[in-house]
Design goal:
Length: 202
């Protein structure tokens, strides 16, 4: 990185100054080479300060190198964590989609059995019918897990109720909500509502 290159350059210049100042103290420089140091009040103190500067620069370089290495490790860990989070969300999305599809299949099968029973026994009360279906499906779920063709499952469950089922009647995407308060089904919220006098709305 540029900051490390700058530090290296400064360090090189400072080391050269230390070397030349050391030669000046030892009277190893020519008169011309000695001129930049002639105005120093205490060359030894200046040498000590330059040496300390070199040490500080080297220490800073080491910290920067360590920081870069640590930063790279952190960035790598963050990338890995993001990838794991994305994978986890995808796994959960697939699980949720699978659960939704499974629950929809179960509900479609129950709707079909309910409708078949209602067609054969229209006078059965809602409470009695749902109680019968609860027992039927509880027993089924004790031994099976809704795998396979839903139409075949409906046919088998209807056979348990001594009802013949026409596979063409199966509507997996249809809805037939049950009103737990006692009505046969909830009204369609999008359907026109009857007027208070019992006549169709205008």
């Amino acid at each position: 990185m540029r900051r490390i290159a700058v530090l290296e350059q400064v360090c090189d210049i400072t080391v050269q100054a230390v070397e030349r100042l050391g030669k000046y103290i030892n009277a190893e420089l020519s008169e011309i080479e000695s001129e930049p140091f002639a105005r120093l009040a205490d060359p030894c103190t200046a040498l000590t300060r330059l040496t300390q500067s070199v040490r500080r620069i080297v220490a800073l370089q080491e910290r920067l190198d360590e920081d870069d290495e640590t930063r790279e490790k952190r960035l790598k860990a963050e990338r890995a964590e993001r990838e794991r989070a994305i994978q986890a969300r995808e796994v959960e999305r697939r699980r949720a989609a699978g659960r939704d599809a499974f629950e929809e299949k179960k509900e479609a099968i129950r709707r079909a059995v309910r409708k078949a029973h209602r067609d054969v026994y229209p006078d059965e009360t809602l409470a009695d019918r749902e109680h019968l279906l609860d027992d039927l499906f509880r027993d089924y779920e004790d031994h099976f897990n809704y795998e396979g063709d839903p139409v075949q499952i409906v046919t088998e469950l209807c056979a348990e109720l001594d009802i013949e089922y026409d596979p063409n009647d199966f509507e997996g995407g249809a809805t037939d909500p049950v009103d737990p308060a006692g009505g046969e089904s909830f009204p369609d919220p999008l359907a026109p509502r009857a007027a208070a006098n019992g006549h169709d709305p205008p």
